[in-house]
Amino acid sequence: xxxxxxxxxxxxxxxxxxxxxxxxxxxxxxxxxxxxxxxxxxxxxxxxxxxxxxxxxxxxxxxxxxxxxxxxxxxxxxxxxxxxxxxxxxxxxxxxxxxxxxxxxxxxxxxxxxxxxxxxxxxxxxxxxxxxxxxxxxxxxxxxxxxxxxxxxxxxxxxxxxxxxxxxxxxxxxxxxxxxxxxxxxxxxxxxxxxxxxxxxxxxxxxxxxxxxxxxxxxxxxxxxxxxxxxxxxxxxxxxxxxxxxxxxxxxxxxxxxxxxxxxxxxxxxxxxxxxxxxxxxxxxxxxxxxxxxxxxxxxxxxxxxxxxxxxxxxxxx
Length: 318
Hints:
Layout: H1 35-40, H2 47-55, E1 59-66, H3 74-88, E2 94-98, H4 106-109, E3 118-120, E4 123-125, E5 127-130, E6 133-137, H5 153-166, E7 172-178, H6 185-193, E8 201-206, H7 210-225, E9 230-241, E10 248-249, H8 258-266, E11 270-276, H9 278-285, H10 290-293, H11 298-315
Parallel strand pairs: 1-7, 1-8, 2-6, 2-7, 8-9, 9-11
Antiparallel strand pairs: 3-4, 5-6, 9-10
């Protein structure tokens, strides 16, 4: 995977990037408001990249969970995937890293919101949900869940570097990284720091309607421009399952063919669809294990198929 060229905001089209020897000196830099900063700043690769590579050497599969659109259930899908992977094989170790700095939700969804992070000589210790499932999030570091995080890009980037290089995960089979919507600072930081850490790829989450698919197309373009392997797309909330009669209905009509058709058009793997079951949603909202609480839910059956496809895609990378 190629590294991402870091560029300040409002740069000209041919900006050489802050790490280039030509930063602030190239013809394209003339008149740029960042010219003085770039010409005087340190050059060369971020030392954090090597630290992340070293820390994640014992992590077999490193997967970004992405979505161009907010509200598609990306964090919930991340939790579903992690729970299902952990339940599938007790001998495998699974972890979730919550990179959504301003909206951390994994502590609540995984039922460990009241836990605290401890630090040792080897780094931060993640919070354990089960014997083989752990999680790390900035949510554990806040004094109150109502605290707003009002940070600019550099501070967010620094926290992501700390998460990737200072958490003592131990040996992991899967590390799922839950990201915020879009293609902004957090995504560029994660991709840059993971550029030498053998990132396995990305799973992209969407809902069936065109307003979500439009933004997901941008996310697919982001992955291609940054050389991220797209493991596949998951269509969330494909159907609504009535908790009383189990009848299925459409919440988000797939008027343009939904995620599967989009994947066919863009030559991207389609991992499968997840229905919307209020019983599973309630479990996630209350931090309970849906696999134990509602084992007969159609979500479980759909999730099993998606997990099988995801494992297959990851194995093909080795």
